[in-house]
């Protein structure tokens, strides 16, 4: 039985070396990349037995995804399909003023046809936490219904449901996202949301503390975590707000930082930590992820412990 089951698409990420342009690159680095599998990897690394479930094409590329994720230590439960393709995305790193560019190539991916009856519902019902994100229902009308049904199945068996709003403007408009995702909110216990997404998608105003209180009072969430980039994050729980700054880090690859944060937060809550302590470990894991190439937070618990301990020592001086 898994502590955590996550559901969503994992693509293959293709990146030119260094800061080379996509249009001139002659070689690409290939890595598995997906929000929900990233969360599973981070949680597993911090001690939560984690499973990622999805639908993939029965092809060398689909098997490439599973092989890499299993190397990271998580379990996989995949529906193999003879139809649909393996989604990919291309990532071009660039400093200011060029910035980082992402080009998606995920149309007609196998997961877009995934239906609830294809999955092992008992796997989700038996987990302590079921997690997915706002990226998944953005991919197709079928996945909107599937996401809702899987959340419902988890809730019916008292499995805690966790959800990262994770808005992607290249997938849908704020209005489409708001209409779909707010309908899912009654089935969610723990919401993770970036402050910018609360404003852009939900139309909320105010600072992150006000956003957390508003979300917590308007919807029946057990916990609301509001992330605020390099300013850290805060969490509303039992009508109390816990706050934690971001740790200082030297960024090599920021992709997947939010997923690392969420996976660590879930893992520490599963281990019995209170919300404040879980935030501390989530922030430390996110900081470490930024030093690691690729989407996945390939950290060790000892490394995260060291970041937390060093910070506590600095504060006590």
Automatic annotation (TrEMBL):
The keyword ATP-binding does not apply. The keyword Transferase applies. One of its GO terms (molecular function) is kinase activity. Keywords: Kinase, Transferase. Residues 1-297 form the Carbohydrate kinase PfkB domain. It comes from the Archaea. Belongs to the carbohydrate kinase PfkB family. NCBIfam families: KDG_KDGal_kin_Halo. This is Sugar kinase. It comes from Natronosalvus rutilus.
């Amino acid at each position: 039985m898994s502590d955590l089951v996550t559901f969503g698409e994992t693509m293959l990420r293709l990146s030119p070396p260094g800061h080379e342009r996509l249009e001139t690159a002659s070689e690409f680095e290939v890595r598995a990349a997906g929000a929900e599998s990233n969360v599973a990897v981070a949680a597993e690394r911090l001690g939560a037995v984690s499973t990622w479930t999805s639908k993939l094409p029965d092809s060398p590329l689909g098997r490439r995804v599973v092989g890499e994720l299993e190397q990271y230590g998580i379990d996989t439960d995949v529906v193999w399909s003879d139809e649909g393709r393996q989604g990919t995305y291309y990532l071009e790193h660039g400093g200011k003023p060029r910035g980082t560019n992402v080009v998606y190539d995920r149309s007609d991916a196998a997961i877009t046809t995934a239906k609830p009856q294809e999955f092992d519902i008992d796997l989700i019902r038996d987990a302590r936490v079921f997690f997915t994100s706002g990226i998944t229902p953005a991919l197709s009308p079928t996945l909107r219904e599937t996401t809702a049904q899987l959340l419902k199945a988890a809730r019916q068996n008292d499995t805690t449901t966790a959800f990262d709003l994770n808005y992607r403007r290249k997938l849908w408009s704020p209005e489409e996202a708001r209409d779909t995702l707010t309908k899912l909110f009654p089935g969610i216990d723990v919401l993770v949301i970036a402050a910018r997404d609360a404003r852009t998608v939900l139309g909320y105003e105010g600072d992150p503390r006000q956003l957390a209180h508003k979300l917590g009072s308007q919807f029946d969430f057990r916990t609301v975590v509001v992330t605020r980039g390099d300013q850290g994050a805060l969490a509303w729980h039992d009508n109390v707000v816990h706050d934690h700054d971001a740790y200082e880090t030297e960024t090599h690859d920021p992709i997947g930082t939010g997923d690392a944060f969420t996976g660590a937060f879930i893992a520490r809550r599963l281990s019995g930590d209170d919300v404040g302590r879980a935030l501390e470990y989530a922030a430390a894991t996110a900081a470490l992820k930024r030093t690691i190439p690729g989407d996945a937070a390939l950290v060790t618990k000892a490394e995260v412990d060291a970041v937390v301990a060093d910070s506590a020592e600095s504060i006590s001086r």
